[in-house]
């Protein structure tokens, strides 16, 4: 154990790889574990929503580790839904009087400002 406090415990294991002449340091963090668990829940939720439009899924596993090495799928999007409009996102506003061009200019200006502020911090 290299770190332990109320929020996180970090354990490490040093492994010498003689074949490749390098040192590997395997690390386990309870914080990272919680984050990964949450990401897995989000991924499973997204896959569940996606599965309605999947017509075929194939998972190739590594024989030694039993880990997935490739996931292939075909998708049949449902017509006239957000799933059938690839790479489309929606901007929401309560301003009814602005046209599409004005809304787009405001959006790009705000994202540019956000980038500037992020780079300054």
What do these coordinates show?
The mean pLDDT is 81. This protein has 2 helices and 5 strands, in the order E-E-E-H-E-E-H. The protein is extended, with a radius of gyration of 23 Å. With 121 residues, it is of the alpha+beta class. The strands form 2 sheets. Strands 1-2-3 form a 3-stranded antiparallel β-sheet. It has a two-stranded antiparallel sheet with strand order 4-5. The longest helix is centred in the middle third of the chain and has 22 residues, at 30-51. Among the domains are: 1-51, no CATH class; 91-121. It has helices spanning 30-51, 100-120, and strands at residues 3-4, 9-17, 22-29, 54-61, 68-75.
Please tag this protein with its features.
2 helices, 29% strand, alpha+beta, extended, 121 residues
Order of helices and strands: EEEHEEH
| Coarse morphology | extended
Lateral strand order in the biggest sheet: 1-2-3
What is the share of helical residues? 25-40%
Provide a count of the helices: 2
**Classification by helices and strands:** alpha+beta
Query: Mind summarizing the main beta sheet?
Result: 3 strands, antiparallel
* N- to C-terminal distance: 33 Å
Radius of gyration: 23 Å
The stretches of 5 or more residues where confidence is low (pLDDT under 50) are none
Strand content: 25-35%
Mean pLDDT metric: 81
Number of strands: 5
How is this fold's topology laid out?
Blueprint: E1 3-4, E2 9-17, E3 22-29, H1 30-51, E4 54-61, E5 68-75, H2 100-120
Antiparallel strand pairs: 1-2, 2-3, 4-5
């Amino acid at each position: 154990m290299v770190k332990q406090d109320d929020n996180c415990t970090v354990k490490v294991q040093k492994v010498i790889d003689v074949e490749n002449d390098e040192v590997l340091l395997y690390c386990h963090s309870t914080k990272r574990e919680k984050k990964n668990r949450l990401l897995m829940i989000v991924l499973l939720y997204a896959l569940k929503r996606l599965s309605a439009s999947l017509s075929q899924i194939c998972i190739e596993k590594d024989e030694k580790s039993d880990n997935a090495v490739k996931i292939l799928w075909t998708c049949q999007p449902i017509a006239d839904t957000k799933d059938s409009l690839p790479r489309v996102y929606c901007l929401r506003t309560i301003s009814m009087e602005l046209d599409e061009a004005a809304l787009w200019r405001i959006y790009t200006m705000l994202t540019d400002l956000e980038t500037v502020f992020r780079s300054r911090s």
